[in-house]
TrEMBL record:
Keyword Ligase: no
Cofactor section: Zn(2+)
Molecular function per GO: metal ion binding; metalloendopeptidase activity
Pfam family, one: Peptidase_M48
CDD domains membership: M48C_Oma1-like
Protein known as: M48 family metalloprotease
GO BP, sorted A to Z: proteolysis involved in protein catabolic process
InterPro entries reported for this sequence: Mito/Outer_Membr_Metalloprot, Peptidase_M48, TPR-like_helical_dom_sf
Record key words, sorted: Hydrolase, Metal-binding, Metalloprotease, Protease, Signal, Zinc
PANTHER family the UniProt entry points to: METALLOENDOPEPTIDASE OMA1, METALLOENDOPEPTIDASE OMA1, MITOCHONDRIAL
Keyword Zinc found: yes
Signal peptide interval: 1-25
GO cellular component term of the entry, any: membrane
Length: 457
């Protein structure tokens, strides 16, 4: 009996070691989606809100997670993670801005940094109840000890959930303030919460107030009532969503659908009878995924004909041409897309890949130029580093090829491979040059990753 109580005591203490890192688990989940057009839209949606929050334009990054659920979260720093399902299920750009405003409330409130405060209070309750239970067990009162343990764990979890609900309510209020100061209507925010409430109803999640204390968030109905009162009174309530942003949102939404869904499902959802831009965009991706390249090129070609200066249509046209083996034809649209976007790193990386795919040594200088620009502006682009390594390898510059490989592997979560390549690069590079110093930096990063991995194991 005593051994059982001691085992449960240890488990109770370990419980809050896990709760203390609720967001860290996200790194083991779905993958990140990268797309130049989508990232540009999300940045334009969050920038006015970040300005209203006092953070400044460009201060907050948005990362799109490949997950069909409606969710968003922050994990420290000035970065918001948005599930693809949030974009896919929203009807308007205002809904997405409502979500972003709420997450900004978590950032400005320092809620991730303060998580340890809530965990600490809960841990102290657990520790006290554990010590009391051990004392009762040693005195021979086994049943009383078990009761103390159970009550302590319940109280600790209740304390932590109450702390979480307070943070969520605070983020709601801050988000409403940022929408108002940015002149954005709260109608989208309310619509998203209503959508979330309907989702909860379908999942059988109780809206009974008796269930409130077992939740990490306030009741959705309660949040709706509180927010509606403030939103309706705000001068921005009647302001319509920005028409240009809404148009871009609908295109991105269709693009994501075409990229993520099976081709048959996309073609059912966007049949050929639908002739609008979003439907043609989605079908181009569906045909591309289904290796029906002529149909894909016909759809994207019609979009380029309508909007010849749209860099994202040109990017997709170049990608389809490249991946259908028409490499020389892919260069012109990719060069133009790169020019029109001011050398967007993701598009420039694709151009660099196309230049290498020509297998023409005359293209190596241009490939190196666009790829170096890409890695200089985008610090999370392993594909560009891989392509740059190919450039160096073809030139016989194996030291820099190994350094590029090390950069690519550190970004891809392979610290052991990064360490090996960085050490080889350091040994071959001229001492005290920037690349030699960078090889040492990559080794430090890799060593730190390996140590953290060892600690987790």
């Amino acid at each position: 009996m005593r051994s059982t109580i001691f085992a449960r005591a240890i488990a109770a203490l370990a419980l809050f070691g896990l709760v203390a890192q609720p967001v860290a688990a996200q790194s083991q989940g779905p993958s990140v989606l990268r797309d130049a057009e989508t990232e540009a839209l999300l940045q334009d949606l969050v920038d006015p809100l970040a300005e209203a929050a006092g953070l400044g334009e460009g201060a907050v990054d948005i990362v799109l997670i490949n997950d069909p659920s409606m969710n968003a979260f922050v994990a420290g720093g000035q970065r918001i993670y948005v599930h693809s399902g949030t974009l896919g299920n929203a009807d308007s750009v205002g809904e997405v801005q409502g979500v972003l405003a709420h997450e900004l409330g978590h950032i400005t409130g320092g809620h991730i940094n303060r998580m340890s405060e809530g965990v600490g209070n809960a841990t102290r309750i657990t520790l006290l109840s554990t010590l009391l239970a051990v004392g009762a067990a040693l005195a021979g009162a086994g049943e009383a000890a078990m009761g103390i343990m159970g009550a302590g764990q319940t109280a600790a979890m209740g304390n932590f959930l109450a702390f979480s609900r307070t943070q969520e309510a605070s983020a709601d209020a801050a988000g409403a303030q940022y929408l108002a100061e940015a002149g954005i209507s709260g109608r989208g925010s309310l619509a998203f919460f209503e959508r979330l409430q309907n989702y909860e109803f379908r999942r059988g999640i109780s809206q009974n107030r008796d269930n409130e204390y077992a939740r990490s968030h306030p009741m959705t109905g309660q949040r709706l009532a509180t927010l509606r009162e403030g939103y309706v009174a705000d001068p921005a309530w009647a302001v319509a969503d920005d028409a240009g942003l809404q148009q871009r949102f609908e295109r991105v939404q269709a693009k994501l659908f075409g990229y993520l869904a099976e081709p048959d499902r996309t073609l059912q959802f966007f049949p050929e009878t639908m002739t609008g831009v979003p439907a043609r965009y989605a079908r181009a991706l569906a045909y591309h995924k289904d290796a029906r390249m002529d149909l894909a090129l016909a759809e994207i070609g019609s979009l380029v004909a309508d909007e010849p200066d749209n860099p994202y249509f040109l990017e997709l046209e170049g990608q389809i041409l490249l991946e259908s083996g028409r490499v020389p034809q892919a260069l012109e649209p990719l060069r133009e897309a790169t020019r029109l976007t001011g050398s967007n790193p993701l598009i420039a990386s694709l151009l660099g890949h196309a230049l290498l795919a020509t297998e023409n040594p005359a293209n190596l200088d241009e490939a190196e130029s666009v790829l170096r620009a890409a890695v200089g502006r985008d610090h999370e682009n392993p594909f560009a580093w891989y392509q740059l390594g190919v450039v160096y390898g073809q030139r016989g510059d194996f030291a820099r090829a190994r350094l590029a490989s090390a950069e690519q592997q550190i970004m891809s979560g392979n610290p052991q491979g990064a360490m090996v390549n960085a050490q080889a690069a350091e040994a071959a590079l001229p001492v005290n040059t920037p690349d030699w110093i960078r090889a040492q930096d990559v080794q430090l990063q890799a060593r730190g990753m390996l140590e953290r991995m060892a600690e987790r194991n």
